[in-house]
């Protein structure tokens, strides 16, 4: 019999995907489910994607360069220039979604026993990428009651040890929807510089900011040697299934090393890169319209949540998530109960239990992440169902 | 300043790709290069691939299931049935090429310090996948002089320790082109069962066997609990750039665990999976014609190599590689010299240095891998250039 690695046994299933079987059962039983559990936008992918792919006419679908297709790299370079950031060709690596960028960065920076500093709650799969690299996630807590804002520098530094290699964050935030303000970003930059850390800034939701301007860590010139930006077309252009992301870094020591991991997996898909390159030609008006649509959805879900007694919610300023504290014994039990035992006129709602967005078991037990990726009418219904579910749930706390 | 992991520093660059810059320089200087260094077939991808992709008409390119697209899984199931192997849906996982299947299997089976048994020379990137998992590659040597055949069971068992978790092999072989006979396969099966190991059989070249029938390890019923098959459309349908592979395993303990790694990276590309599924509808005549073409190429390169004094070659029965021992001081120096300092009428040849296909430095120094992925006329020229290069090379040994 084969032996399974401790690494594999320590991985948890995705809080976003693991309740899938209950959803399948509920749908088999004829229930309609409003999905707030997964960040799969309903927005249409710009037609440029498939148009470019349909025009692909090479006779052989051959390996591409390990670094990525140069045309796509140039498109990304141009996009960053418009945001006021200069990256040369050699600073950009195409990856299989933001996910691979995160995994390769962790593998390049962390040996077994090293530590990755995150702000809790955080994107669930960061736990997996850390474990793949043998690293530990050390989490600085933030709370629903303070809107999941960052603590001050002194508090953050208490979590830094001689094993800390990097700070990993999402901005705008998944699962909280928080957008860091200048004070928070300056504090992070100061900590990174002072302690000689790497900073992995997962900025895939950059275009999804609803109140005021957005600042990328890429505009902090003195972070050039420390910063790794993770990006993706998945959310920006509603092309999650293309699995085309990228990693940007100006530190040559780092890029020399990550290039070896890229060579090991040969290359990312040729045809999807052709489509992704075309996405960067999508007119600005597309991104503006999408932003406006999500802003309306944000307003809709925020208003809906505010009207449910006992719910404490993050102040969602960006991305398309909101983290909520619910008046329940256990949000995972509640999520399963919503699928198995609840409906209103044959309809129910699916949410992602919050515990998976924390590093250690026992935290976030009464929290949940809601993805507002439905149109406003469906969102209203979904939040109504959540409220009705909370009234009827036997494990209600208050 | 960020700190780089020991893991990253220990990775080597690909012997297949690292001489690329010399090739770029040679081409800039106007040289024509015959590429025997990389296994990128010149064969056309079946039109079914792009036809299916052009018909893809979903409005949103959405995330797919982590396990893979069910239609593609069914197509693979059908293909295996034709080869006499029964795999149920839950036994098949779609991966980003065979590469990801190999990496995920290593991560699922090996903790830091564990050992992976291979037969040397072996596919260079096995070193990288092992290092990503923190495992050590322990190599059982085979040699050019004995045609890279496997030693007997007693010899193989000398390399097994209490840290050995799995045997990893390619059959037909990359870089040797060796196809294991029944005696060799029975021996491996016996070792795997006796020592309770996993067996990862990389069978991506299954259709490329030129003398007699091919037996898959998947037909060994008593290996069901130990066997992991790695497969891919890359070589079979000349669609390397699609990056669609798969992993097949009947051991539920293993598949439960690997599913968690699949969830962490969300899914493989949606559009390329649509194309890959259609590839399995390619008429058998395509695979037969490709096999015949490679058989001619195999005969061409074997005859050409036999005519060069001092060259010892493997007996290539499958895949599209041949491993050669060359009468030179250092095959890497020779490969660079061919690109920088040699030409005949403005033409030269590029080969992959053999040292990268060994676990430890200092081995395979006078060997090289040749990929016969060119048409017969070009192959004849390439081998002629190799012979002329060997005559003129200052570091010639004999």
Automatic annotation (TrEMBL), chains A, B:
CDD domains: AAT_like (cd00609). One of its GO terms (molecular function) is transaminase activity. It holds the Pfam family Aminotran_1_2. Residues 32-341 form the Aminotransferase class I/classII large domain. InterPro entries: Aminotransferase_I/II_large (IPR004839), AspAT/PAT-like (IPR050596), NHTrfase_class1_PyrdxlP-BS (IPR004838), PyrdxlP-dep_Trfase (IPR015424), PyrdxlP-dep_Trfase_major (IPR015421), PyrdxlP-dep_Trfase_small (IPR015422). It comes from the Bacteria. Its cofactor is pyridoxal 5'-phosphate. Its EC number is 2.6.1.-. Keywords: Aminotransferase, Pyridoxal phosphate, Transferase. One of its GO terms (biological process) is amino acid metabolic process. Belongs to the class-I pyridoxal-phosphate-dependent aminotransferase family. This is Aminotransferase. It comes from Dialister succinatiphilus YIT 11850.
């Amino acid at each position: 019999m084969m032996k399974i690695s401790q690494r594999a046994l320590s991985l948890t299933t995705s809080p976003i995907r693991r309740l899938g079987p209950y959803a399948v059962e509920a749908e088999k039983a004829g229930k309609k489910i409003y999905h707030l559990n997964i960040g799969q936008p309903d927005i249409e992918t710009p037609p440029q994607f498939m148009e470019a792919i349909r025009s692909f006419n090479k006779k052989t679908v051959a390996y591409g360069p390990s670094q990525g297709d140069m045309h796509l790299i140039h498109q990304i370079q141009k996009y960053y220039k418009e945001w006021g950031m200069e990256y040369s060709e050699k600073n950009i690596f195409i990856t299989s979604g933001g996910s691979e960028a995160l995994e390769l960065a962790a593998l390049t920076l962390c040996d077994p026993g090293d530590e990755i500093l995150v702000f809790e709650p955080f994107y669930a799969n960061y736990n997996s990428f850390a474990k793949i690299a043998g690293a530990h996630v050390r989490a600085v807590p933030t709370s629903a009651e303070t809107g999941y804002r960052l603590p001050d520098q002194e508090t953050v530094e208490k979590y830094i040890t001689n094993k800390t290699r990097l700070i990993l964050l999402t901005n705008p935030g998944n699962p909280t929807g928080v957008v860091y303000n200048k004070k928070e970003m300056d504090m992070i930059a100061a900590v990174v510089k002072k302690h000689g850390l790497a900073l992995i800034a997962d900025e895939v939701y950059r275009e999804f900011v609803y109140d005021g301007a957005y600042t990328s860590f890429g505009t902090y010139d003195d972070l050039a040697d420390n910063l790794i930006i993770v990006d993706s077309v998945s959310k920006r252009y509603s092309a999650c299934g293309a699995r085309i992301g990228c990693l940007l870094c100006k530190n040559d020591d780092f890029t020399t090393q990550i290039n070896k991991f890229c060579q090991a997996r040969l290359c990312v898909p040729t045809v999807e890169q052709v489509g992704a390159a075309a996405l960067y030609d999508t007119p600005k008006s597309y991104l503006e319209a999408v932003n406006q649509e999500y802003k309306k959805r944000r307003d809709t879900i925020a208003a809906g949540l505010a009207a449910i007694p006992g719910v404490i919610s993050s102040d969602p300023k960006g991305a398309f998530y909101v983290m909520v504290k619910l008046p329940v014994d256990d949000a995972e039990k509640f999520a399963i109960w919503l699928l198995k035992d609840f409906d209103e006129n044959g309809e129910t709602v699916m949410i992602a239990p919050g515990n998976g967005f924390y590093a250690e078991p026992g935290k976030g037990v009464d929290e949940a992440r809601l993805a507002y990726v439905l149109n406003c009418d469906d969102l209203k219904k979904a939040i109504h169902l959540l409220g009705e579910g909370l009234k009827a749930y036997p494990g209600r706390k208050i």
